[in-house]
Amino acid sequence: MERNSVTDSHQEDVVAGETDENRTRKNGLYADVSSELAENMRQGWADTERRDVEPIAQAAHTARRRAALSALFPGELLVVPAGNPKVRANDTDYPFRPSSDYVYLTGDQSQDSVLVLEPGADGEHRAIAYLLPRSDRETGEFWLDYHGELWDGRRNSLTENERLLGLPCRDVRTLTERLAAATGPVRLLRNYDAGVDAALDDKVTAERDTEFRAALSEMRLRKDEFEIADLRHACQATARGFEDVVRVLGTDTPTAERVIEGTFWMRARTEGNDVGYASVCAAGPHATTLHWVRNDGETRPGELLLIDAGVESRHLYTADVTRTLPVDGRFTPVQRKVYDAVYEAQSAGIAAVRPGAKYRDFHHAAQRVLTEHLASWGLFGERSVDEAYELGLHRRWTLAGTGHMIGLDVHDCAKARTELYVDGTLEAGMVLTVEPGLYFQSDDLTVPEELRGIGVRIEDDFLVTDEGNENLSAGLPRAADEVEAWMARLRG
Ligand code: GLY
Ligand code: MN
Ligand code: MN
Fold first, then answer.
1. Burial class (CB in 10 A: 0-12, 13-18, 19+), 229
2. Atom of ligand 1 nearest to the CA of 457
3. Ligand 1 proximal residues by C-beta, below 6 Å
4. From the CA of 410, how far away is ligand 1's center (Å)?
5. Average pLDDT value over all residues in the chain
6. Mean pLDDT (whole number) for 337-353
7. Which of 25, 56, 106, 307 has most Cβ atoms within 10 angstroms of its Cβ?
8. Is this prediction's pTM over 0.90?
């Protein structure tokens, strides 16, 4: 909101030759605007209003989601901002990515927007999207404002957006006034739009907003048909991205991790919106660093490549998939020993994903198998598997949990209450990863030398179905033999 406070009177000042920080960001272009140029720029533009727009594919779903949210908070004013662009450096912004809850409830992806659910006299809500309208030609806003349409591209008009989104739309620059007038209870999704936060500062409490955030997270635990179809697409596109990576991977020459990252990113940008999170492209011992996103190393023949990457769809749902590949196409015996242990653990985890199971079951199933293998390799000395597991000694090498929900966020539904998520029960429609791994640091003197520097994770994405589960990333092989055959096939 605060970044779009262009007013008519301000425009006159700008046209008269004054500048401000925002407007001079474009190479000082606005510093010198003659009244002739200003007049010239007002005229000669065609009416481009689109009168043929159809509702977006998920409009019926977003309406249902808003109705479900409305029912949770009768009589309260509910405010869900999309967020504002963020500065990357000096006068350049990061590509804008709206807040997931805003997308979930509207299907819209425009910056600076805010969804408001207005309570009526009967306690039921009327949803209104507050959006930036078309840039005004008359005031010169379309070219004099830093985010004017001449620079950033055409926006939908409010009328077009009403048809697209299936809800009334208003100019977001009128929102502060509306919020200032609020008298009843208000709930806000905080920390996305500083202008909205400030406007509601004296009307909200952290406790009530935390409840609101949790409710939104919990609504997203079970995916609807649209979301499932989109996640399926994200997983399929991700599989194609992994195939692209195998094709660029040199068998006897190094491949830069950056080349691997860029290759996957090309697929993400081509078939989706972006990657859903920073890709981990970890050659050799880098695989033992779980958040290896520097990606400034290179592969070496005989070593493994761990790639953890996911395509984020155009509707912003993301896959989250990991494969650990022998760079030259064949696992060495010791690599295969570790890989097979992780594969067995993942298979045990997958078998525990079904409706009615406790969420924690798949984690324990996978971790137990890993612990058994670690014990069989003598890594717990005299201690039994039960004892090591009880004491958590395996965690030196398993490091992370075994999975999480995915959806609009890679770690989806993260604000849901514990009793409904990690202490909860799996239900049909949930989508989660199963991703056990073993990571032996290069400097870990407690393991045999042959294991040092090996990191293996296998990660797939599962839809909980009425019968059990469906592997949405089944387009990629999991077992060691299948991985080798798949790589050989892709390399022709
Ligand atoms: N790529 C993030 C994760 O696996 O959780
Ligand atoms: Mn994951
Ligand atoms: Mn991952």
1. middle
2. 4
3. 277, 308, 320, 404, 410, 435, 459
4. 7
5. 93
6. 98
7. 106
8. yes
The alpha carbon of 401 and the centre of ligand 1 are apart by a number of angstroms equal to 10
The contacts of residue 81 (CB under 8 Å, 6+ apart) are: 99, 102, 113, 114, 115, 189, 192, 193, 196
Of the residues 261, 275, 320, which should be mutated to test ligand 1's pocket, given the most ligand atoms within 8 Å of the CB? 320
The DSSP symbol for 15 reads: H
The answer to whether residue 166 scores a pLDDT higher than 60 is yes
CB 104 within 8 A of CB 69: no
Segment 198-203 long-range contacts (CB within 8 Å, at least 24 positions apart): 199/1, 199/175, 200/79, 203/179
Residues with CB under 5 A from ligand 2 (ion): 320, 433, 435
Phi, psi of 2 (to 5 degrees): -65, -20
Closest ligand 1 atom to residue 459 Cα is: 4
Q: What percent of the chain has pLDDT over 70?
A: 94
185's CB contacts (< 8 A; 6+ apart) are 75, 76, 77, 208
The token pair at 256 is 């830069």
Mutational pocket test of ligand 1: of 277, 293, 318, 431, the residue with most ligand atoms within 8 Å of the beta carbon:
277
> What confidence tier does 32 reach under pLDDT thresholds 50, 70, 90?
confident
Give the pair of three-digit tokens for residue 278.
């920073």
Report whether pLDDT(25) > 60.
no
Quick one: how far is CA 374 from the chain centroid? 34
Query: Which class for 489: exposed (0-12), middle (13-18), buried (19 or more C-beta within 10 A)?
Result: exposed
